[in-house]
Design goal:
160 residues; five-stranded mixed beta sheet; single chain
């Protein structure tokens, strides 16, 4: 979305097509991304723009214990402030994180904001990083334990 087209604000409904969902699923290590829809609104603020939205997705992850498909529904809201890069002001890629200070606006270059990129970013943040089916419990393998490589090396060392 070109920043000069926003005016007093605008709303967009975004819906990913099958090919896009396949690319997103691969990038986010999902077994499947059945649907991805978002309603996004962007409005001007004093120094930039405020982007807010809600996204809905049907994802299938792989259970970290059983390795079985684990479908889930993601419904989440997001918001972020953005502003254009100022001419003559260097943009420093290195920064310190101070959790007591509110987030700084994202810097937009080339006069455009990628609404879909924000939807994918907040989808990635909403995905369970350790998916586990309800009731799934890790059972360590039983049977003879293989010796560690260090034990094998210790046995090779001549004893005095």
């Amino acid at each position: 979305m070109r920043l000069d087209q926003i005016g007093t604000g605008l709303k967009r409904h975004l819906e990913a097509e099958a090919a896009d969902r396949a690319q997103i699923a691969q990038a986010l290590n999902l077994a499947d991304l059945g649907s991805l829809k978002a309603d996004v609104e962007i409005k001007p603020t004093g120094a930039g723009w405020h982007l807010a939205g809600v996204l809905h997705a049907d994802v299938v992850q792989t259970c970290g214990v059983t390795l079985e498909p684990l479908p889930s529904r993601i419904d989440t809201q997001f918001s972020v402030d953005v502003m254009e890069a100022m001419d003559g002001v260097p943009h420093d890629d290195e920064f310190d994180i101070d959790l007591s200070v509110p987030d700084q606006p994202d810097i937009i270059e080339d006069g455009a904001v990628d609404l879909a990129a924000y939807v994918v970013e907040y989808l990635a943040l909403a995905i369970d990083p350790w998916p586990r089916k309800p009731g799934a419990v890790f059972e360590p393998p039983t049977g003879p334990v293989e010796p560690s490589p260090f034990e094998v090396l210790r046995d090779l060392k001549p004893r005095s």
